[in-house]
Structure formats: C-alpha cells, structure tokens
From TrEMBL:
It comes from the Bacteria. Residues 4-150 form the Calcineurin-like phosphoesterase domain. This is Phosphoesterase. SUPFAM superfamilies: Metallo-dependent phosphatases.
Amino acid sequence: MSTTYFISDHHFGHKNIIDFENRPFSDVDEMTSNMIAKWNAVVRKEDKIFHLGDFSFLNKERTQEIVSQLNGYKILILGNHDRGRPRTWWLEAGFDEVSEYPLIYMNFFFLSHEPMYMNKQMPYLNVHGHIHGQKYEGRHYYNVSVEQLDYTPVSFEQIRDSVVVDEEQA
C-alpha cells in the first residue's frame, strides 16, 4: 500500500538559504545530498509526494538530476521561487504533475505554497510551506517547510493525526 507525503522549500542550489534559515550544512552539496537521503529514507518508489513549492534554484539539467534521484510520484505546487519557469519546465525536469494553484486533498486539506487565510469557523486545514522556520498559530495550519520537519517528508497520516490531537486538546 502506498503512502502520501508532503514537504516544501528545499531551495536546492540556493547557497544563501543556508545562512538565511540557519540550515546545518557547510555548503550546497552537503545540503543537497542530505536532503535527498532524508527524502528517500521515508518515501518509497510507489508512494506519492506533494512538494509545496520552492524546489530548486538550479538549471533544468541539474534539477532533473536531483528529481530523478528522489523516490515517489512527485506532484509540485509552484512556489514563489518556482513561478519564473513554466509548468512544462518542471514537467521536463521530472515532476509527474505540476499545479500553478493550490489543491484540495481529501476534501479537507488545502495544499498551497504560501499560507492561506483560514477563518476560525472554517473546518479545513491549510498544509503549506513558504514561511520556513516560522509557524502560524492555530489548528488551521500545518507548515511542511523542510526546517519544520528535519528535512524529512511528513506523511498524510502524521498530519491528520496531529490535527485530531490538537482538537482533543483544544
């Protein structure tokens, strides 16, 4: 049985992100190899993974090399740093599906790169990235930026179960 995973904001090839977000890597090569290893430690070839944007700052050839090393059926929701390239660029780089817009998953989860405004009465959860080490308060948001997850994709079940725990504690 396959599992569905989520993650965002790898910023492959972005040297300055190491300092901006205080990432524990000495250079982009170490960051790249570490993030690929952490992805493949949990995601199997038969799994599905949603990448919620800001995947790579590299050229298509180098991005393709990275994508080809990553397990799973890969769906990219374009982030602010991905939008300079058309959907076709990302498909040619190896993503199985690419969306320019947020998606709704399982009729309850809004998948987006940037956090979406969620009214307190709304029964939905916004799974997002973009804000890296920051976190929105409240039960309506789940940040899947790599900095929040020790660079390791998180499963749908982990997200779902954390929402149930939060509601029981509320």
